Amino acid sequence: MRAFTGISELLTMAGQEASPEERLGLVRDAAVVVEHGRVRWSGARAACPLPLGEIETIDLGQRVVLPGLVDCHTHLVFAGDRAADFEARCRGESYQAIAQRGGGIATTVASTRQASREALTALARPRLVALLGAGVTTVEIKSGYGLSLESELAQLEVAATLAREGPQAIVPTLLLHIVPPEYRERRDDWVRLVVERLIPEVAARKLASAVDVYCDVGAFSADESARILAAGRAHGLALKAHVEQLSATGFAVRAAELGARSLEHLEHADAAAVAAMARAGTVAVLLPTASLFLGDARRPPVAALREAGVAMAVATDLNPGSSPTFDPWLAATLACTWYGLTPAEALLGMTAVAARALDLGDGRGTLAPGAPADLAVARVPTWQALLYGLGHRPIAETWIAGLRVAA
Protein backbone atom coordinates (compact mmCIF):
# COMPACT_ATOMS: atom_id res chain seq x y z
CA MET A 1 0.00 0.00 0.00
CA ARG A 2 1.15 3.55 -0.73
CA ALA A 3 -0.34 7.00 -0.42
CA PHE A 4 0.01 10.00 -2.73
CA THR A 5 -0.02 13.34 -0.94
CA GLY A 6 1.08 16.84 -1.90
CA ILE A 7 -1.99 17.14 -4.14
CA SER A 8 -3.15 20.74 -4.27
CA GLU A 9 -6.22 19.85 -6.33
CA LEU A 10 -7.55 16.37 -7.07
CA LEU A 11 -10.09 15.76 -9.84
CA THR A 12 -11.67 12.38 -9.12
CA MET A 13 -14.15 12.66 -12.04
CA ALA A 14 -16.52 10.78 -9.74
CA GLY A 15 -18.83 13.56 -8.57
CA GLN A 16 -22.50 12.62 -8.69
CA GLU A 17 -24.00 16.09 -8.96
CA ALA A 18 -25.69 17.48 -12.05
CA SER A 19 -23.28 20.06 -13.42
CA PRO A 20 -20.03 19.18 -15.22
CA GLU A 21 -18.07 21.29 -12.74
CA GLU A 22 -19.50 19.29 -9.82
CA ARG A 23 -18.90 15.99 -11.63
CA LEU A 24 -15.17 16.80 -11.66
CA GLY A 25 -15.17 15.77 -8.00
CA LEU A 26 -12.72 18.51 -7.03
CA VAL A 27 -10.93 17.99 -3.70
CA ARG A 28 -8.29 20.40 -2.38
CA ASP A 29 -5.33 19.32 -0.24
CA ALA A 30 -6.07 15.73 -1.20
CA ALA A 31 -4.61 12.27 -0.89
CA VAL A 32 -4.98 9.04 -2.88
CA VAL A 33 -4.28 5.68 -1.28
CA VAL A 34 -3.37 2.82 -3.63
CA GLU A 35 -3.38 -0.90 -2.96
CA HIS A 36 -2.70 -3.67 -5.50
CA GLY A 37 -2.71 -1.18 -8.35
CA ARG A 38 -6.13 0.26 -7.56
CA VAL A 39 -7.48 3.20 -5.63
CA ARG A 40 -8.36 2.17 -2.09
CA TRP A 41 -9.36 5.65 -0.97
CA SER A 42 -9.33 9.23 -2.30
CA GLY A 43 -10.38 12.51 -0.77
CA ALA A 44 -9.27 15.30 1.52
CA ARG A 45 -5.96 14.40 3.18
CA ALA A 46 -7.20 15.41 6.61
CA ALA A 47 -10.17 13.05 6.28
CA CYS A 48 -8.17 9.96 5.29
CA PRO A 49 -9.29 7.04 7.51
CA LEU A 50 -5.95 5.26 7.03
CA PRO A 51 -2.79 6.08 9.03
CA LEU A 52 -0.80 8.00 6.40
CA GLY A 53 2.20 8.15 8.70
CA GLU A 54 2.44 4.35 8.76
CA ILE A 55 2.42 3.61 5.02
CA GLU A 56 4.73 4.55 2.15
CA THR A 57 3.96 8.12 1.15
CA ILE A 58 4.83 9.88 -2.10
CA ASP A 59 4.71 13.67 -2.00
CA LEU A 60 3.76 15.02 -5.45
CA GLY A 61 4.85 18.55 -4.59
CA GLN A 62 1.51 20.36 -4.47
CA ARG A 63 0.47 19.38 -7.99
CA VAL A 64 -2.91 19.07 -9.69
CA VAL A 65 -3.84 15.39 -10.16
CA LEU A 66 -6.49 13.82 -12.37
CA PRO A 67 -7.15 10.32 -13.69
CA GLY A 68 -4.98 9.02 -16.49
CA LEU A 69 -6.53 10.15 -19.77
CA VAL A 70 -8.52 7.79 -21.99
CA ASP A 71 -7.94 8.44 -25.70
CA CYS A 72 -11.07 6.79 -27.05
CA HIS A 73 -10.43 7.29 -30.79
CA THR A 74 -7.07 6.68 -32.48
CA HIS A 75 -5.83 5.03 -35.68
CA LEU A 76 -2.41 4.47 -34.19
CA VAL A 77 -1.20 1.47 -36.21
CA PHE A 78 -0.16 2.58 -39.70
CA ALA A 79 2.81 3.05 -41.99
CA GLY A 80 3.75 5.95 -44.25
CA ASP A 81 2.56 9.54 -44.14
CA ARG A 82 0.21 11.87 -46.00
CA ALA A 83 2.42 14.92 -46.37
CA ALA A 84 1.62 15.12 -50.10
CA ASP A 85 -2.11 15.20 -49.30
CA PHE A 86 -1.51 18.01 -46.82
CA GLU A 87 0.35 20.03 -49.42
CA ALA A 88 -2.46 19.45 -51.93
CA ARG A 89 -5.11 20.61 -49.45
CA CYS A 90 -3.09 23.74 -48.76
CA ARG A 91 -3.24 24.44 -52.51
CA GLY A 92 -7.03 24.24 -52.35
CA GLU A 93 -7.78 20.62 -53.26
CA SER A 94 -10.54 19.09 -51.16
CA TYR A 95 -10.21 15.98 -49.01
CA GLN A 96 -12.84 14.26 -51.19
CA ALA A 97 -11.06 15.17 -54.45
CA ILE A 98 -7.75 13.83 -53.14
CA ALA A 99 -9.42 10.56 -52.17
CA GLN A 100 -11.14 10.24 -55.56
CA ARG A 101 -7.84 10.42 -57.41
CA GLY A 102 -6.31 7.68 -55.25
CA GLY A 103 -4.87 9.67 -52.37
CA GLY A 104 -6.18 9.95 -48.84
CA ILE A 105 -6.84 6.75 -46.94
CA ALA A 106 -5.78 4.66 -49.95
CA THR A 107 -2.25 6.08 -49.63
CA THR A 108 -1.97 4.87 -46.06
CA VAL A 109 -3.49 1.52 -47.00
CA ALA A 110 -0.78 0.95 -49.61
CA SER A 111 2.01 1.69 -47.11
CA THR A 112 0.41 -0.30 -44.30
CA ARG A 113 -0.16 -3.38 -46.45
CA GLN A 114 3.52 -3.40 -47.40
CA ALA A 115 4.74 -3.19 -43.81
CA SER A 116 5.39 -6.27 -41.70
CA ARG A 117 3.80 -6.79 -38.31
CA GLU A 118 7.17 -6.10 -36.74
CA ALA A 119 7.53 -2.84 -38.66
CA LEU A 120 4.02 -1.71 -37.74
CA THR A 121 4.69 -2.49 -34.08
CA ALA A 122 7.96 -0.55 -34.15
CA LEU A 123 6.22 2.44 -35.73
CA ALA A 124 3.40 2.37 -33.19
CA ARG A 125 5.52 2.21 -30.03
CA PRO A 126 6.79 5.82 -30.06
CA ARG A 127 3.26 7.05 -30.73
CA LEU A 128 2.11 5.35 -27.56
CA VAL A 129 5.09 6.78 -25.70
CA ALA A 130 4.13 10.29 -26.84
CA LEU A 131 0.59 9.78 -25.58
CA LEU A 132 1.91 8.35 -22.31
CA GLY A 133 3.97 11.46 -21.71
CA ALA A 134 0.79 13.50 -22.13
CA GLY A 135 -0.95 11.49 -19.42
CA VAL A 136 -2.83 8.99 -21.62
CA THR A 137 -3.04 5.63 -19.85
CA THR A 138 -5.77 3.94 -21.92
CA VAL A 139 -5.85 3.99 -25.73
CA GLU A 140 -8.37 2.72 -28.25
CA ILE A 141 -6.63 1.49 -31.40
CA LYS A 142 -8.69 1.08 -34.55
CA SER A 143 -7.69 -1.00 -37.54
CA GLY A 144 -8.91 0.17 -40.95
CA TYR A 145 -5.71 0.72 -42.92
CA GLY A 146 -5.38 -2.86 -44.14
CA LEU A 147 -8.57 -3.24 -46.18
CA SER A 148 -7.97 -6.93 -46.72
CA LEU A 149 -8.72 -9.90 -44.54
CA GLU A 150 -5.04 -10.52 -43.81
CA SER A 151 -4.04 -6.89 -43.33
CA GLU A 152 -6.93 -6.01 -41.02
CA LEU A 153 -6.12 -9.02 -38.87
CA ALA A 154 -2.46 -7.99 -38.88
CA GLN A 155 -3.30 -4.53 -37.54
CA LEU A 156 -5.36 -6.01 -34.73
CA GLU A 157 -2.59 -8.50 -33.95
CA VAL A 158 -0.19 -5.56 -33.64
CA ALA A 159 -2.62 -3.92 -31.22
CA ALA A 160 -2.63 -7.16 -29.19
CA THR A 161 1.18 -7.14 -29.11
CA LEU A 162 1.18 -3.56 -27.87
CA ALA A 163 -1.35 -4.48 -25.19
CA ARG A 164 0.90 -7.28 -23.95
CA GLU A 165 3.92 -4.98 -23.88
CA GLY A 166 2.12 -2.27 -21.89
CA PRO A 167 2.16 -0.19 -19.86
CA GLN A 168 -0.98 1.40 -21.31
CA ALA A 169 -4.26 -0.45 -21.54
CA ILE A 170 -5.21 -1.00 -25.19
CA VAL A 171 -8.80 -1.28 -26.41
CA PRO A 172 -8.86 -2.71 -29.97
CA THR A 173 -11.59 -1.91 -32.50
CA LEU A 174 -12.17 -3.37 -35.97
CA LEU A 175 -12.75 -0.43 -38.30
CA LEU A 176 -14.24 -0.79 -41.77
CA HIS A 177 -12.86 2.39 -43.24
CA ILE A 178 -13.49 2.41 -46.99
CA VAL A 179 -14.05 -0.12 -49.77
CA PRO A 180 -10.66 -1.43 -50.96
CA PRO A 181 -9.59 -0.14 -54.37
CA GLU A 182 -9.64 -3.66 -55.84
CA TYR A 183 -13.29 -4.06 -54.77
CA ARG A 184 -14.49 -0.69 -56.04
CA GLU A 185 -16.49 -2.24 -58.90
CA ARG A 186 -17.81 -5.10 -56.73
CA ARG A 187 -18.55 -3.46 -53.42
CA ASP A 188 -21.02 -6.10 -52.34
CA ASP A 189 -18.31 -8.76 -52.50
CA TRP A 190 -16.25 -6.80 -49.97
CA VAL A 191 -19.19 -6.24 -47.64
CA ARG A 192 -20.01 -9.95 -47.84
CA LEU A 193 -16.39 -10.85 -47.02
CA VAL A 194 -16.48 -8.52 -44.03
CA VAL A 195 -19.80 -9.86 -42.77
CA GLU A 196 -19.17 -13.55 -43.39
CA ARG A 197 -15.45 -13.90 -42.71
CA LEU A 198 -13.67 -10.91 -41.18
CA ILE A 199 -16.08 -10.05 -38.37
CA PRO A 200 -16.61 -13.69 -37.33
CA GLU A 201 -12.85 -14.34 -37.19
CA VAL A 202 -12.12 -11.16 -35.25
CA ALA A 203 -14.86 -12.01 -32.76
CA ALA A 204 -13.80 -15.66 -32.43
CA ARG A 205 -10.18 -14.69 -31.81
CA LYS A 206 -11.17 -11.82 -29.48
CA LEU A 207 -9.01 -9.42 -31.47
CA ALA A 208 -11.45 -6.53 -31.00
CA SER A 209 -14.15 -5.51 -28.56
CA ALA A 210 -16.08 -3.41 -31.08
CA VAL A 211 -16.74 -2.92 -34.77
CA ASP A 212 -16.71 0.57 -36.29
CA VAL A 213 -17.81 1.61 -39.77
CA TYR A 214 -17.24 4.83 -41.71
CA CYS A 215 -20.45 5.96 -43.38
CA ASP A 216 -19.85 8.97 -45.62
CA VAL A 217 -19.13 10.12 -49.14
CA GLY A 218 -16.38 7.91 -50.53
CA ALA A 219 -16.80 5.33 -47.78
CA PHE A 220 -19.72 2.99 -47.02
CA SER A 221 -23.36 3.67 -47.79
CA ALA A 222 -25.99 3.68 -45.06
CA ASP A 223 -27.30 0.24 -46.09
CA GLU A 224 -23.78 -1.23 -46.26
CA SER A 225 -22.95 0.27 -42.89
CA ALA A 226 -26.10 -1.17 -41.33
CA ARG A 227 -25.21 -4.65 -42.62
CA ILE A 228 -21.74 -4.39 -41.12
CA LEU A 229 -22.97 -3.21 -37.73
CA ALA A 230 -25.69 -5.87 -37.64
CA ALA A 231 -23.04 -8.53 -38.27
CA GLY A 232 -20.88 -7.11 -35.49
CA ARG A 233 -23.80 -7.18 -33.08
CA ALA A 234 -24.64 -10.77 -34.07
CA HIS A 235 -21.10 -11.79 -33.13
CA GLY A 236 -21.12 -10.04 -29.76
CA LEU A 237 -19.11 -6.94 -30.70
CA ALA A 238 -20.03 -3.48 -29.50
CA LEU A 239 -20.99 -1.00 -32.22
CA LYS A 240 -19.46 2.34 -33.21
CA ALA A 241 -19.61 4.48 -36.34
CA HIS A 242 -17.83 7.39 -38.01
CA VAL A 243 -20.86 9.44 -39.09
CA GLU A 244 -21.91 12.83 -40.40
CA GLN A 245 -18.30 13.98 -40.78
CA LEU A 246 -18.00 15.26 -44.36
CA SER A 247 -21.68 15.14 -45.32
CA ALA A 248 -25.12 14.58 -43.85
CA THR A 249 -25.88 10.90 -44.45
CA GLY A 250 -28.57 10.48 -41.80
CA PHE A 251 -26.91 7.24 -40.69
CA ALA A 252 -26.39 8.50 -37.14
CA VAL A 253 -30.06 7.79 -36.42
CA ARG A 254 -29.87 4.21 -37.72
CA ALA A 255 -26.60 3.55 -35.90
CA ALA A 256 -28.04 4.78 -32.60
CA GLU A 257 -31.15 2.67 -33.12
CA LEU A 258 -28.92 -0.36 -33.74
CA GLY A 259 -27.41 0.27 -30.31
CA ALA A 260 -24.17 2.07 -31.14
CA ARG A 261 -22.06 2.63 -28.03
CA SER A 262 -20.59 5.79 -29.55
CA LEU A 263 -20.76 7.86 -32.72
CA GLU A 264 -17.67 9.70 -33.89
CA HIS A 265 -17.20 13.13 -35.59
CA LEU A 266 -20.83 14.34 -36.01
CA GLU A 267 -20.03 17.66 -37.70
CA HIS A 268 -23.18 17.35 -39.85
CA ALA A 269 -25.43 15.74 -37.23
CA ASP A 270 -28.98 17.10 -37.18
CA ALA A 271 -31.75 17.24 -34.59
CA ALA A 272 -32.94 13.72 -35.45
CA ALA A 273 -29.44 12.35 -34.83
CA VAL A 274 -29.18 14.13 -31.48
CA ALA A 275 -32.59 12.84 -30.39
CA ALA A 276 -31.75 9.27 -31.44
CA MET A 277 -28.46 9.37 -29.53
CA ALA A 278 -30.19 10.69 -26.43
CA ARG A 279 -32.79 7.91 -26.58
CA ALA A 280 -30.13 5.23 -27.02
CA GLY A 281 -27.62 6.60 -24.50
CA THR A 282 -25.01 6.82 -27.25
CA VAL A 283 -21.83 8.80 -26.53
CA ALA A 284 -20.75 11.53 -28.95
CA VAL A 285 -17.00 11.35 -29.61
CA LEU A 286 -15.79 14.78 -30.69
CA LEU A 287 -12.59 15.15 -32.73
CA PRO A 288 -11.81 18.86 -33.11
CA THR A 289 -8.20 18.45 -34.28
CA ALA A 290 -9.48 16.57 -37.35
CA SER A 291 -11.97 19.20 -38.46
CA LEU A 292 -9.47 21.98 -37.81
CA PHE A 293 -6.65 20.23 -39.68
CA LEU A 294 -8.97 19.59 -42.64
CA GLY A 295 -10.04 23.23 -42.64
CA ASP A 296 -13.68 22.29 -42.14
CA ALA A 297 -15.63 25.14 -40.57
CA ARG A 298 -18.58 22.86 -39.78
CA ARG A 299 -18.77 21.89 -36.11
CA PRO A 300 -20.85 19.33 -34.18
CA PRO A 301 -24.09 20.62 -32.61
CA VAL A 302 -22.60 20.82 -29.13
CA ALA A 303 -25.37 22.98 -27.64
CA ALA A 304 -28.05 20.58 -28.88
CA LEU A 305 -26.10 17.55 -27.62
CA ARG A 306 -25.72 19.20 -24.22
CA GLU A 307 -29.40 20.13 -23.99
CA ALA A 308 -30.44 16.59 -24.95
CA GLY A 309 -28.17 15.09 -22.29
CA VAL A 310 -25.86 13.30 -24.75
CA ALA A 311 -22.50 12.58 -23.11
CA MET A 312 -19.59 14.10 -25.04
CA ALA A 313 -16.13 12.51 -25.18
CA VAL A 314 -13.03 14.16 -26.67
CA ALA A 315 -10.23 12.29 -28.44
CA THR A 316 -7.17 12.94 -30.60
CA ASP A 317 -8.24 10.94 -33.69
CA LEU A 318 -4.50 10.29 -34.05
CA ASN A 319 -4.06 9.32 -37.71
CA PRO A 320 -1.76 10.23 -40.62
CA GLY A 321 -4.31 12.05 -42.76
CA SER A 322 -6.75 14.26 -40.89
CA SER A 323 -5.28 14.48 -37.38
CA PRO A 324 -1.53 13.79 -37.20
CA THR A 325 -1.22 14.72 -33.53
CA PHE A 326 -0.19 13.05 -30.29
CA ASP A 327 -1.55 15.86 -28.12
CA PRO A 328 -4.81 15.20 -26.24
CA TRP A 329 -4.49 18.58 -24.54
CA LEU A 330 -4.63 20.40 -27.85
CA ALA A 331 -7.74 18.38 -28.72
CA ALA A 332 -9.35 19.27 -25.40
CA THR A 333 -8.52 22.97 -25.67
CA LEU A 334 -9.92 23.07 -29.20
CA ALA A 335 -13.01 21.28 -27.95
CA CYS A 336 -13.52 24.38 -25.79
CA THR A 337 -12.45 27.19 -28.13
CA TRP A 338 -13.54 25.64 -31.45
CA TYR A 339 -16.53 23.49 -30.48
CA GLY A 340 -17.89 25.28 -27.43
CA LEU A 341 -17.43 22.82 -24.58
CA THR A 342 -16.66 24.14 -21.13
CA PRO A 343 -13.30 23.15 -19.62
CA ALA A 344 -15.07 20.83 -17.18
CA GLU A 345 -16.92 19.11 -20.04
CA ALA A 346 -13.68 18.69 -22.00
CA LEU A 347 -11.84 17.19 -19.02
CA LEU A 348 -14.69 14.78 -18.33
CA GLY A 349 -14.68 14.03 -22.04
CA MET A 350 -11.05 12.87 -21.89
CA THR A 351 -11.56 10.75 -18.77
CA ALA A 352 -14.85 9.40 -17.40
CA VAL A 353 -16.92 9.97 -20.56
CA ALA A 354 -14.17 8.61 -22.81
CA ALA A 355 -14.14 5.45 -20.67
CA ARG A 356 -17.90 5.21 -21.13
CA ALA A 357 -17.46 5.50 -24.89
CA LEU A 358 -15.28 2.39 -24.69
CA ASP A 359 -17.65 0.67 -22.24
CA LEU A 360 -14.95 0.36 -19.59
CA GLY A 361 -16.81 -0.48 -16.43
CA ASP A 362 -13.87 -0.80 -14.03
CA GLY A 363 -13.82 2.82 -12.87
CA ARG A 364 -11.25 3.81 -15.47
CA GLY A 365 -11.27 7.53 -16.16
CA THR A 366 -11.96 8.23 -12.48
CA LEU A 367 -10.05 8.08 -9.20
CA ALA A 368 -12.92 6.61 -7.22
CA PRO A 369 -12.28 3.69 -4.85
CA GLY A 370 -11.77 0.51 -6.87
CA ALA A 371 -10.63 2.31 -10.03
CA PRO A 372 -7.22 1.63 -11.58
CA ALA A 373 -4.62 3.82 -9.89
CA ASP A 374 -3.76 5.67 -13.11
CA LEU A 375 -2.75 9.26 -12.35
CA ALA A 376 -1.82 12.22 -14.50
CA VAL A 377 0.17 14.70 -12.41
CA ALA A 378 0.12 18.23 -13.80
CA ARG A 379 2.53 21.13 -13.44
CA VAL A 380 -0.20 23.79 -13.34
CA PRO A 381 -1.44 25.91 -10.41
CA THR A 382 -5.16 25.10 -10.80
CA TRP A 383 -7.29 22.65 -12.76
CA GLN A 384 -8.59 25.49 -14.98
CA ALA A 385 -5.05 26.00 -16.26
CA LEU A 386 -4.94 22.47 -17.69
CA LEU A 387 -6.62 23.66 -20.90
CA TYR A 388 -5.27 27.19 -20.87
CA GLY A 389 -2.73 26.86 -23.63
CA LEU A 390 -2.21 25.80 -27.23
CA GLY A 391 0.35 23.05 -27.56
CA HIS A 392 1.52 23.31 -23.96
CA ARG A 393 2.51 20.20 -22.01
CA PRO A 394 0.79 20.33 -18.61
CA ILE A 395 1.66 16.79 -17.47
CA ALA A 396 4.76 16.32 -15.34
CA GLU A 397 4.35 12.63 -14.46
CA THR A 398 2.18 9.69 -15.49
CA TRP A 399 1.45 6.78 -13.15
CA ILE A 400 -0.21 3.47 -14.04
CA ALA A 401 -1.44 1.06 -11.36
CA GLY A 402 0.39 3.17 -8.80
CA LEU A 403 3.75 3.00 -10.59
CA ARG A 404 5.44 5.93 -12.32
CA VAL A 405 5.80 5.21 -16.03
CA ALA A 406 6.65 8.64 -17.48
CA ALA A 407 8.18 11.84 -16.14
Explained architecture:
The chain has 407 residues and is α/β, with parallel strands linked by helices. The protein has two domains: 108 residues, Urease, subunit C, domain 1 (Roll); 288 residues, Metal-dependent hydrolases (TIM Barrel, Alpha-Beta Barrel). Helices cover 36% and strands 23% of the residues. It is built from 15 helices and 15 strands. The strands form two sheets. It has an eight-stranded parallel beta sheet. The chain has a seven-stranded mixed beta sheet with strand order 3-2-1-4-13-14-15. Strand 10, helix 10 and strand 11 form a beta-alpha-beta unit. Helix 13 packs antiparallel against helix 14. The chain starts with a strand and ends with a strand. The mean pLDDT is 96.
Quick overview:
With 407 residues, the chain is of the alpha/beta class.
SSE blueprint and pairings:
Layout: E1 2-11, H1 20-23, E2 26-35, E3 38-44, E4 56-67, E5 69-71, H2 83-90, H3 95-100, H4 105-114, H5 117-133, E6 136-142, H6 149-165, E7 169-176, H7 187-204, E8 210-215, H8 222-234, E9 238-243, H9 251-257, E10 262-265, H10 271-280, E11 283-286, H11 288-293, H12 302-308, E12 312-314, H13 328-337, H14 343-349, H15 352-357, E13 375-378, E14 395-400, E15 403-406
Parallel strand pairs: 1-4, 5-6, 6-7, 7-8, 8-9, 9-10, 10-11, 11-12
Antiparallel strand pairs: 1-2, 2-3, 4-13, 13-14, 14-15
